[in-house]
């Protein structure tokens, strides 16, 4: 298999250009190119030569190349580890869903009344807990992107049924459970940082969430009912790809933020040199207060360099695993799960907790500042003195040679910085949205499984278990009672001969 060349695969678009690090390194490349131009002009047009000995150039260049290579490799290891951890989360989610859906019994007898419980009740219970498994990956995605709380279009519909208070009688805001209290505080912080648009309508003053909102159809059609907001009604733009439409339509006490909130794109993202004019015109602009922002900070600096969102602490994944653990305890208490399966479910929940902890470690553990600062300063000094050392050999070619060396070395250094935290919205980051949607599709497929009895599908005309040695189907073999397969003395011997013939046929057919 030949890998595709990313530069020439498909059409070259502005988005591909945006995925490069040109926007991040162009000011430094321009600076060192100007220095090379100055050295060349002074040394050529005047009697003073700025050239110096190049004895140290080779040694320092080799050392810097090795250090930059190590920097890029260590960053890619973090990128690769992040992808592996998301794979572990997908596996643990599938395993938990299979245990809940298949092994937790549907046929139950009430211990008090000794009557058979409703099948619908058991199915709703199991499907709701699988929805919590799905919500875990979504909550981790928002946590890694610096988006706190649960009030998102792809998360809130999956967790809104969870209890809000530590008790039901006379509950106040002081009795609100940590997940909901922290989420409400995050919403208030978000509202102070942003001007809400038509998508996020201005909410009422902070109030305690309603546990079981009762809304009339008239108010629901307006998108508002007793201070509650519907994510799909008011001001929601129509999109070609809108996976949130597959989620429940529920009401919330706060406006739901979009599931995906990447930085707003502008012409400055594709033409980085225009940032210079933006800086010049900024004092005269009337819209200074409406600068493009993401997570409360500008998405780029005035030079075009990407600015990372601040890391936040989120207790939503932890709260979800606590509810899954309490559900496991309830199953064991009521004798609905065998010990071996309970161990497997415990390991699955522990795997989810281990995964989110390691993902948080990658996000919150950058390379030490001293290492990054020293490496960048060393590279700057190397590029600063480079034109002085190569002028005697290159003359006028000193300018393009310095520009190329700056672009090459600074680019590799910036790539390491770019992929060190692979959980944001850049095109070089991991596609967390697709990972979550993949988990959602897998869990839906699991709950679509009907758990039929084996006799229904094994002994059918569609099954040829002994092919190619015996191409009869299972139904024909079972009905042919005069065959040697059914003989008390020849049965197993004849079956073994057929399977041995199948091995020989397969071995011959599949070899070239």
UniProtKB/TrEMBL annotation:
<feature type="compositionally biased region" description="Low complexity">
    <location>
        <begin position="202"/>
        <end position="213"/>
    </location>
</feature>
<dbReference type="InterPro" id="IPR044669">
    <property type="entry name" value="YneE/VCCN1/2-like"/>
</dbReference>
<keyword id="KW-0472">Membrane</keyword>
<feature type="transmembrane region" description="Helical">
    <location>
        <begin position="51"/>
        <end position="70"/>
    </location>
</feature>
<dbReference type="GO" id="GO:0005254">
    <property type="term" value="F:chloride channel activity"/>
</dbReference>
<feature type="transmembrane region" description="Helical">
    <location>
        <begin position="369"/>
        <end position="388"/>
    </location>
</feature>
<keyword id="KW-0812">Transmembrane</keyword>
<feature type="region of interest" description="Disordered">
    <location>
        <begin position="196"/>
        <end position="217"/>
    </location>
</feature>
<keyword id="KW-1133">Transmembrane helix</keyword>
<keyword id="KW-1003">Cell membrane</keyword>
<protein>
    <submittedName>
        <fullName>Uncharacterized protein</fullName>
    </submittedName>
</protein>
<dbReference type="Pfam" id="PF25539">
    <property type="entry name" value="Bestrophin_2"/>
</dbReference>
<keyword id="KW-0813">Transport</keyword>
<dbReference type="GO" id="GO:0005886">
    <property type="term" value="C:plasma membrane"/>
</dbReference>
<keyword id="KW-0406">Ion transport</keyword>
<feature type="transmembrane region" description="Helical">
    <location>
        <begin position="25"/>
        <end position="45"/>
    </location>
</feature>
């Amino acid at each position: 298999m030949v890998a595709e060349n990313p530069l020439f695969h498909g059409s070259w678009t502005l988005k591909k250009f945006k995925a490069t690090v040109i926007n991040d390194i162009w000011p430094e490349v321009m600076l060192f190119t100007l220095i090379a131009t100055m050295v060349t002009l002074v040394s050529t047009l005047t009697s003073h030569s700025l050239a110096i000995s190049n004895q140290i150039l080779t040694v320092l260049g080799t050392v810097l190349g090795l250090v930059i290579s190590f920097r890029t490799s260590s960053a890619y290891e973090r990128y690769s580890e992040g992808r592996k951890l998301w794979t572990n989360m997908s596996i643990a989610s599938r395993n938990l869903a299979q245990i809940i859906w298949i092994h937790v019994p549907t046929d139950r007898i009430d211990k008090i009344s000794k009557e058979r419980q409703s099948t619908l009740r058991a199915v709703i219970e199991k499907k709701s807990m699988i929805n919590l498994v799905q919500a875990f990956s979504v909550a981790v995605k928002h946590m890694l992107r610096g988006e706190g709380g649960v009030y998102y279009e792809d998360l809130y519909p999956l967790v809104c049924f969870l209890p809000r208070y530590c008790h039901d009688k006379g509950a106040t805001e002081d009795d609100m459970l940590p997940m909901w209290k922290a989420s409400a505080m995050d919403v208030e912080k978000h509202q102070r940082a942003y001007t809400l648009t038509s998508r996020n309508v201005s909410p009422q003053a902070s109030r305690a969430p309603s546990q079981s909102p009762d809304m009339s159809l008239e108010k629901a059609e307006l998108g508002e009912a007793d201070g509650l907001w519907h994510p799909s009604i008011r001001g929601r733009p129509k999109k070609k790809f809108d996976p949130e439409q597959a989620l429940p339509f529920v009401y919330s006490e706060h406006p739901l933020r979009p599931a995906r909130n990447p930085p707003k794109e502008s012409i400055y993202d594709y033409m980085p040199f225009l940032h210079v004019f933006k800086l010049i015109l900024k004092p005269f602009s009337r819209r200074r207060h409406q600068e493009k922002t993401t997570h409360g900070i500008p998405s780029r600096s005035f030079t075009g360099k990407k600015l990372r969102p601040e890391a936040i602490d989120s207790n939503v994944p932890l709260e979800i695993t606590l509810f899954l653990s309490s559900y496991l305890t309830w199953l064991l208490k009521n004798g609905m799960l065998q010990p071996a399966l309970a161990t497997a479910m415990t390991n699955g929940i522990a795997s989810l907790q281990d995964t989110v902890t390691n993902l948080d470690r990658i996000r919150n553990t950058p390379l030490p500042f001293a290492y990054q600062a020293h490496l960048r300063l060393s590279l700057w000094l190397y590029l600063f003195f480079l034109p002085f050392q190569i002028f005697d050999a290159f003359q006028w070619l000193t300018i393009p040679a310095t520009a190329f060396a700056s672009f090459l070395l600074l680019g590799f250094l910036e790539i390491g910085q770019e992929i060190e935290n692979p959980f944001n919205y850049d095109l070089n980051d991991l596609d967390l949205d697709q990972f979550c949607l993949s988990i959602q599709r897998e869990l839906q497929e699991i709950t679509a499984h009907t758990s039929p009895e084996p006799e229904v599908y094994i002994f059918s005309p569609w099954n040829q278990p002994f092919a190619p040695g015996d191409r009869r189907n299972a139904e024909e073999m079972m009905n042919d009672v005069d065959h040697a397969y059914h003989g008390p003395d020849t049965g197993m011997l004849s079956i073994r001969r057929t399977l041995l013939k199948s091995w020989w046929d397969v071995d011959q057919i599949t070899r070239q």
